[in-house]
Amino acid sequence: MAAAVRPENARVTFADRLIRWQLEHGRHSLPWQGTRDPYAIWISEVMLQQTQVNAVIPYYLRFMARFPDVAALAVVPVEDVLALWSGLGYYSRGRNLHRAACIIMEQYGGIFPRDAAALQQLPGIGRSTAAAIAAFAFGEHCTILDGNVKRILARYFGISEYPGKQMVEEQLWQLAEELLPTMGNHRTIAAYTQALMDLGALVCVRRRPDCYHCPLQADCFACQQNLTANLPVPKPRKTLPVRETIHLILLNQKNQIFLEKRPAEGIWGGLLCFPEIPIDQDGINFCEEHLRVRAITLAHLPHLPHSFTHFKLNIQPLLLRCTGNLPACEKNDEEKNCLWLTIEQALLRGIPVPTRKLLLMTQSYLSPKTHE
After folding, report:
1. What is the pTM of this model?
2. Final residue in a domain of this structure, among 198, 224, 250
3. Catalytic machinery residues
4. In whole angstroms, what is the distance from residue 350 CA to residue 196 CA?
């Protein structure tokens, strides 16, 4: 287990210093602040997973305008949710939001569970997210431990191992719970929770932390030992495998594009994408055998790299023109999970980032040309 240097006054002063700092220097005007509505807090916390605040704000505002409460979210098809989520990434978050909303309506009568343990049973809500919702909405005495908080604690206590390691993470949870305010009301725990988030986002940042303005600098191990550049210990590097694939961009005579809905589970689950084939498969033959359409090649568009957590994907886009025998879903069939859409229509649907980029690439290719 990683060793932790525990300042003797940590339990007494850590929370107090953070709360005072937050009231004076923290963030107070984010769109989801100033509310105890668990729904609004939940949406913001899920969107903020793996995503920067500035990127989240416009998505959050659009999402709340379209789905102002859990009932409005639960009643729509998941495709409507994914359409608003398009471009935000990590699409399982959007699917889990919809699933959780349905469960809250069906099993809880539309009323959010009031404690972190119950919240954690809902799809897409982990331990830290559940604690954030419970603290902000209900004043529960519980701690968060997101990436920012792990970084703060690793530096403050001098944790000398990678924080994502299970044994080290368990130690960090224990430390985080010990540092909670010993007493306090709803306002206290909410301010403390926000302080942890703000300190990690504004001061104790990954590179070049602003230790001079940190309320914890006096007894922060990393600051005192000049080790902020070394802590937290980074994740051990490994070379990500590269996968090659072909995406078929199939145009009909109206310049509509053929898209398929991906299976609910897996990469880009539930989103509209181009047909995908192995790198060694012939696109023309695939169209004839599987889509029942004859086609000719218009262009090989530039390769499009895309990175996932565990691998890199190199997409080779092949632009094709239908010449006859359009598939049965020519008139669009949601049940068969296949659609013909204009580029403008497709950009408004639930699509992953690479599909959006390929649509724009196709639009650019077609724009200076006359319709063929």
Report:
1. 0.84
2. 224
3. 45
4. 34
